[in-house]
From TrEMBL:
GO CC annotations, alphabetized: mitochondrial inner membrane
Catalyzed reactions per annotation: Cleaves type-1 transmembrane domains using a catalytic dyad composed of serine and histidine that are contributed by different transmembrane domains
Enzyme Commission number(s) from the entry: 3.4.21.105
GO biological process terms held by the UniProt record: signal peptide processing
MF-aspect GO terms: serine-type endopeptidase activity
Protein name in UniProt: rhomboid protease
Subcellular location per the Swiss-Prot or TrEMBL entry: Mitochondrion inner membrane
Pfam families linked to this entry: Rhomboid
Domain of life: Eukaryota
Membrane topology: Multi-pass membrane protein
Domain (Peptidase S54 rhomboid): residue spans on this chain: 22-162
Organism: Cochlearius cochlearius
Length: 194
C-alpha cells in the first residue's frame, strides 16, 4: 500500500491536479469584502512578520501556510461531509497573525472600528482560536474555521519550532543567492550606475 501511495503522488500527472488548487487557493477570496479584510490584516501585520522572518522566509511560510490551511480545510470538510470550496487565503493570513501574536504576545492591538478598546496580541490570538474552535465544533458556516485553525496553529508552530527545524538549514542557500545577486548587480547586471 505504501508503494502504491508513493507512486501515485510522485509519478501520476493527476497528482499535480491535487496540489495546484491548494497553492492557488492561497490567493482566492469569497467576496470583495473578504479580500479587503484579509488585505487589511496582512498589511497590518506584514511589516512585523517580515522583520521577524525576512522576505524570503516570509514568502515561503506564507505559501506553505496557504497549502497547509487548505489541506486542513479539505480534511475537515471530508470528515463532516460538507463539500464547499476551501479558500486558503484566510488561513495564510491567520498564519501571519498567529506568528506575530506568538512572538510579541504583549503588543497592543485594537479593532479598526473600535480603536478605544485595546488588548494584547496574546489575548487576541486566544480569542480567535477559541472562536474558530467553537465554530468548527458547532458547524458554523460563516467562516472556514478549519482553515483558520490550521493557519493559526501552523503560524504558532513555525515561529516556535519551525524556524530552527526548517529554515536554519536553508539559510546558507539564501545567503549564497544574495551574494550571487549582489555580484551580478555590481558588474552592471541591472544595478544603478552613479
Amino acid at each position: 500500500m505504501r508503494r502504491i501511495m508513493f507512486t501515485y503522488f510522485t509519478s501520476d500527472p493527476s497528482s499535480r491536479a491535487l496540489c495546484s488548487p491548494m497553492l492557488l487557493s492561497t490567493f482566492s477570496h469569497f467576496s470583495l469584502f473578504h479580500m479587503a479584510a484579509n488585505m487589511y490584516v496582512l498589511w497590518s501585520f506584514s511589516s512585523s512578520v517580515v522583520s521577524l522572518l525576512g522576505c524570503e522566509q516570509f514568502i515561503a511560510v506564507y505559501l506553505s501556510a496557504g497549502v497547509i490551511s487548505t489541506f486542513v480545510s479539505y480534511v475537515a470538510k471530508m470528515a463532516t461531509g460538507r463539500f464547499e470550496p476551501s479558500l486558503g487565503a484566510s488561513g495564510a493570513i491567520m498564519t501571519v497573525l498567529a506568528a506575530v501574536c506568538t512572538k510579541m504576545p504583549e503588543a497592543k492591538l485594537a479593532i479598526i472600528f473600535l480603536p478605544m478598546f485595546t488588548f494584547t496580541a496574546g489575548n487576541a490570538l486566544k480569542a480567535i482560536i477559541a472562536f474558530d474552535t467553537a465554530g468548527l465544533a458547532l458547524g458554523w458556516r460563516l467562516f472556514d474555521h478549519a482553515a483558520h485553525l490550521g493557519g493559526a496553529l501552523f503560524g504558532m508552530w513555525y515561529v516556535t519550532y519551525g524556524h530552527e527545524l526548517i529554515w536554519k538549514s536553508r539559510e546558507p542557500l539564501v545567503k549564497a543567492w544574495h551574494e550571487m545577486r549582489t555580484k551580478n548587480t555590481g558588474k552592471g547586471g541591472g544595478g544603478r550606475s552613479n
